[in-house]
Amino acid sequence: EMAPHGPFETGFYSRSNDIYDERRLTLMSDLKEALTNGTTELHYQPKMDLRSGQIIGFEALIRWQHPERGWVPPIDFIPLAEKTGVITQLTHWVIDQALSDLRTLQKIQPGLGMAINVSARDLLSAGLEEQFAQSLARHQLEAGHVTVELTETAAMDDPEKGLEALGRLSALGLRISIDDFGAGYSSLSYLKQIPASELKLDRTLVHDIQASDSARVIVETAITMGHTLGYQVVAEGVESGQDAARLKAMGADLLQGFCLCRPQSLTATVDWLEKQRQPEESRDASWSD
Ligand code: C2E
Ligand code: MG
Ligand code: MG
Ligand code: MG
């Protein structure tokens, strides 16, 4: 489970930043410890079908409460975990925990899906598909209920190997999702070679659709392009009901965002899902029809 190279060999250590780098190394050894002693947690954010209003699945998002530093946001440790190779151990843990929790959620609503974020380094390291296969078997889940999310730039780190690895994941039956679309610089000709089922429009793209005509045109174009390439299109980071209604009118298929629900613990997710399934309850998503 250890990194193939120590952090000193990957070149991120530099003399000019001794103190800063020592802090980062400590953070990484704390993270490894947290992953083994169970102090990292997964929170879940629902994904909704905009036409039916049904919850179709959840995305797993890692949360880490550091004993001294308190809550550390993913942006402060995921990139470093990628650089040092700790991401391999992290992703391994995330896959098994998320699939174990999916089994719990499917008891409330059969057929629910789970999306797991993976990095370029995971994709290019051997054994990712074995980890998925083993966890699917352990928790008796169908591969088609699991989505692998990766950013367009992650897939392009090593385009040829990346496509090969994605082909293997897809052959296993997993769904592939291109995350944060519009935030990177992928070429459309590369994009269309990815065996993806889903395109997630980045939050920054979705953010301005009320205020700006050009943002609206860009989102509309991205939705049309996604559909032309055969993808389901997800709008992520949608904060207002107004935006959600607009995105629905623009033809987006799925929605995620604070307007529907913030990421929350498994226990809170179970309660929330049970409430959503009671028809007499007034729904959070009252704008959806
Ligand atoms: P992402 O995969 O694009 O995840 C969406 C991020 O947007 C999450 O941030 C989520 O909490 C946030 N979000 C969702 N709805 C809204 C909204 O309406 N408004 C706003 N402002 N934000 C919203 P989070 O959890 O901080 O994660 C940030 C990034 O860290 C993720 O972006 C993903 O790239 C990475 N990450 C998180 N968990 C994992 C993990 O388990 N493994 C890996 N490899 N990366 C992870
Ligand atoms: Mg994601
Ligand atoms: Mg995203
Ligand atoms: Mg994002």
Notes on the structure:
This protein has an eight-stranded mixed barrel, surrounded by six helices. The protein is an alpha/beta fold and 289 residues long. It is 44% helix and 18% strand. Helix 3 runs parallel beside helix 12. Strand 6, helix 8 (188-191) and strand 7 (198-201) form a beta-alpha-beta unit. The longest helix is centred in the middle third of the chain and has 22 residues, at 87-108. It has helices at 18-37, 78-84, 87-108, 120-124, 128-138, 152-156, 159-171, 188-191, 203-206, 213-228, 241-249, 266-276; strands spanning 40-49, 55-66, 70-72, 113-117, 146-151, 175-181, 198-201, 232-235, 254-255. The chain binds ligand C2E and magnesium ion (3 copies). Residues 45, 60-62, 73-75, 78, 94, 117-119, 149, 179-180, 203, 236-239, 256-258, 263 line the site of ligand C2E. One of its GO terms (molecular function) is cyclic-guanylate-specific phosphodiesterase activity.
Q: What molecules are bound to this protein?
A: ligand C2E, magnesium ion
Radius of gyration: 19 Å
pLDDT < 50 runs, ≥5 residues: 1-11
Number of strands: 9
Shape: globular
| Class by alpha and beta content | alpha/beta
What is the percent of helical residues?
40-55%
Helix segment tally: 12
- The portion of residues forming beta strands comes to 15-25%
Order of helices and strands: HEEEHHEHHEHHEHEHHEHEH
Mean pLDDT level? 89
Strand arrangement within the widest β-sheet reads 1-2-4-5-6-7-8-9
Distance between the termini: 48 Å
Note the main sheet: 8 strands, mixed, barrel
